[in-house]
Amino acid sequence: MFANSLIPLLFILVSNGFAYSFFVITMPSVGRQMDFSDTATGAVVGLSALALTLVAPIWGNLCEKWGRRRVILIGIVATTAFNVASATLIQLRLELLLGTQLAFVLLLSTRLLNSLFTGGLKPAGQAFIADVTSADSRAKGMGLMGAAFGVGSILGGFSASLSGSQHLLAGYVAISILLLASCFVTAVYLPEPRKQPDDSAAITHAPLPYKRISGFLLITFLGLMLFSLLQHVIPLTLEDRFLLSNDMAIRRSGMTMMLTMIVMILTQSLLVGRLPLVPRNLIVVGSVVCGCAMIAATFSHTPATLMLSMCVFGFGLGLLFPGNLASLSLSVDNDSQGRVAGVNGIGQGLGLASGPIAGSFLHNYTYHAPYIVCVIIMVSIFMMAFVLRRKA
């Protein structure tokens, strides 16, 4: 069941990652074309991610009551609808058929609604994998989940590097086609991995062991905050620090994030399952690699060296994220997987929300500030991981 059930789930996660990364990678430069300030653009990306924190625990509980499959279907259908809506609004503004303020309000509202209805995708996917994997293969399963989202991010980065600002609409059309296919796959091929009780009202759960899992939740928040911060800052760095044009900044940032995700995927899918490291040790090693990569990024003098630093960063995240998710999953029993995934969604949402906002602020202060802050946070993650490792 492991392989057969994961294939449709991984395809769905690829589609979702494609849609998300294309929007996030292109938005900083496209926002300037739409006459949005950098802060306003960061708010569109960041506040929509913040909305995930409001609904992730709710969706986590619902996937225990409704099942994983129904929550995933709702999420992918909503992703498809709101992706079309976002593309339409952006195109209308670029053709000057919408005013700047109205376009900002409508786009922000669309992305907020997208977050509210798709907030169950990751918690349900994480719980799905916990249902079909054993304790020994949990890190490998979580690595495949991250790799699937990474493949989508690669497609998003590759599409951004091809489309630039001149063929943006074509990129959104390609995303919509893939999302429609994933809706079909979910409806027809995705199984429900966990038999639900006949009386959902009879479901009772012990409280989650927050003291035991709080460190892993914090690492989720910090790791995704850094990832989203860099995803937002790199196009601005290429424009303002390395003096690339708007179109070339989109293409180069897309290529940079694509290569970063390729390294992350190869690490998650090919290396994590073969390393003789327990999940907590994966966090320790990953945080060291990421910290070294950000030191290199701080002193990068060309787009090429920045790209190389990000590839090393992707290798570190490829170790850190699966190790953290596996540690979190193994800290609770099987009947709490959906709920702990929903609570983890709070950290994911806060991280994705705060990253672009913090990145915009730090970039306006100085070009080097975002990367220096990343180094400091990775040192903090290393210290937490080392403490968690000693406790285990």
Structure description:
- With 392 residues, this protein is mainly alpha-helical.
- It has 13 helices and no strands.
- It has helices spanning 2-33, 38-65, 68-94, 100-118, 121-132, 138-163, 168-189, 210-240, 246-271, 279-298, 303-330, 337-365, 369-391.
- α2 (38-65) packs antiparallel against α12, α3 packs antiparallel against α4 (100-118) and α3 runs antiparallel to α7 (168-189).
- The radius of gyration is 20 Å and the shape is globular.
Low-pLDDT sequence parts: 197-203
The helix content is: over 70%
Terminal Cα span: 31 Å
Q: Mean of the pLDDT scores? A: 84
Helix count, per DSSP? 13
Following the backbone from N to C, one meets helices and strands in this order, namely: HHHHHHHHHHHHH
Main beta sheet strand tally, sense and closure: none
Layout of SSEs?
Blueprint: H1 2-33, H2 38-65, H3 68-94, H4 100-118, H5 121-132, H6 138-163, H7 168-189, H8 210-240, H9 246-271, H10 279-298, H11 303-330, H12 337-365, H13 369-391
What key attributes describe this structure?
mainly alpha, 392 residues, 13 helices, single chain
Brief characterization of the structure:
This protein is an all-alpha fold and 392 residues long. 82% of the residues lie in helices and 0% in strands.
